[in-house]
Amino acid sequence: MYTIPPKKMLILNILDILKKYSDENHRLSAKEIGERLEREYSQKADRKTVKRNLMNLIDFGYNIEYSESVRINKDGEEETILSDWYLNREFVDAELRLLIDGLLFSKHIPYNQCKALIGKLEGLSNTYFKSKVKHIRTMPEKFPENKALLYTIEILDEAISKKKRVQFYYISDYGTDKKPRLHKNKDGTITTYKVNPYQMAATNGRYYLICTHKYYTDTVTNYRIDRIKDICILDDEPITPAREVPALKNGFDLPKHMAENIYMFSGEGVMVRFRAKKYILKDVLDWFGQDVRFSNENDDEADVNVRVNADAMLYWSLQYGEHIEVLEPAALRARVGAAARAISEKYL
Fold first, then answer.
1. CA–CA separation, 222 vs 199, rounded Å?
2. Pseudo-torsion of CA 244, 230, 206, 201, nearest 10°?
3. Which among 218, 200, 196 is positioned nearest to 209, based on CA atoms?
4. Residues 215 and 192 both lie in one domain
5. What is the DSSP track for 296-339?
6. DSSP E strands, the chain
7. What digits encode the pLDDT tens for the residues 38-59?
8. Is 113 strand, coil or helix?
9. Sign of CA dihedral 64, 67, 72, 73
10. What's the confidence (pLDDT) of residue 219?
11. Are 223 and 170 in contact (CB under 8 A)?
């Protein structure tokens, strides 16, 4: 038998109606709220009761907006009418859509977790917002997933806050069976990584750990967090302070690090000069940021000077090979040329 909700639930049901059906473009009168109360919650409430509960919700701290108007009642007296009630939300629809898009474009969050997170974000808005995004979903999972990704991020965040080292195994490859292969030492044993974690960064749809090794602190290394397995904090091992790391002695500049490591390869950046067609300069700025310098400009081309990881620049040059020419350093130019010839020979 259906049970009619107790009167003490009335204020919660009114709040639920505001959450589901109101926003700045969809305002409700006290009469409309009363009609929904009766239709959806089997509760009857007159306009005065609805108004009183709405004002109580405002007193409790809920950000509820309304409009005021004045009318003359049947006794010829002025009467203030409150209407157009709606819940002013912490996130506007555009902000929620931006967060959902970030999840849709991510490559590192497993499909089921992504779907659940999108559902939670949709719940922060109303039924009208849900109708706008119901036709947009992530593609079914196509990438090998690490279901412990969010846990790994949580552990890393704690380790960085406590300035403690972490230990983990690392997936270095996949076989034709689509199963992960952990990195191994020369003797065939699985490699145990002990690193000093300094920062996490998200780029190209993936999370990366920026760190140095326990015994080799000269080079800053990047690891994909979705490939980290069985992580734990080494509570008895504090990290090597950044000021003692040659590459970090002047402080860690994340935007600079990201610009120099566009594919998140490890290693120091080198000064590179390449000739680029002007129509791809927008791509150059997208990849390398605002610190690039242009020179030797003419109507069609310009030289680009930038500090970037040499391995990353090699791959980027192959990606944009039709539109750019690496000029310096000579060693990098030779590597790009050799790679381009090797590719060309396969299509002869």
1. 10
2. -30
3. 200
4. yes
5. S--SSEEEEEEEEEHHHHHHHHHHTTTTEEEEESHHHHHHHHHH
6. 64-72, 78-87, 164-174, 180-182, 193-203, 206-213, 221-224, 228-238, 269-277, 293-295, 301-309, 324-328
7. 999 989 899 889 999 999 999 9
8. helix
9. negative
10. 80
11. yes
- Tell me the pLDDT tens digit for each residue of 155-179: 999 999 999 999 999 998 877 777 8
Q: Check residue 1 and give its pLDDT.
A: 40
Radius of gyration of the chain (CA): 29
The mean per-residue pLDDT over the stretch 123-148 comes to: 63
Rounded to an integer, what is the distance from CA 27 to the centroid of its chain? 32
Domain shared by 174 and 245, yes or no: yes
Tokens of 69: 């108007």
CATH of the domain at 66: 1.10.10
In a domain? residue 61: yes
Residues 275-299 have pLDDT tens digits of 999 998 988 888 888 888 999 999 9
Per the structure, the complete domain to which residue 38 belongs is given by: 7-87
Same domain for 103 and 122?
Answer: yes
| pLDDT tens, position by position, 9-29 | 899 999 999 998 988 888 999
Structure tokens at 277: 């067609």
- 3-class state of residue 28 by DSSP: strand
Number of structural domains, the chain? 4
pTM: predicted TM-score of the whole model, two decimal places: 0.58
Q: Per residue in 296-326, pLDDT tens?
A: 999 999 999 999 888 889 999 999 999 999 9
Q: What are phi and psi of 210, to 5 degrees?
A: -105, 120
CA–CA separation, 168 vs 316, rounded Å? Answer: 30
**Phi and psi at residue 245, in whole multiples of 5°?**
-95, 120
Looking at mean pLDDT, say which of 1-15, 131-145, 173-187, 255-269 comes out highest: 173-187
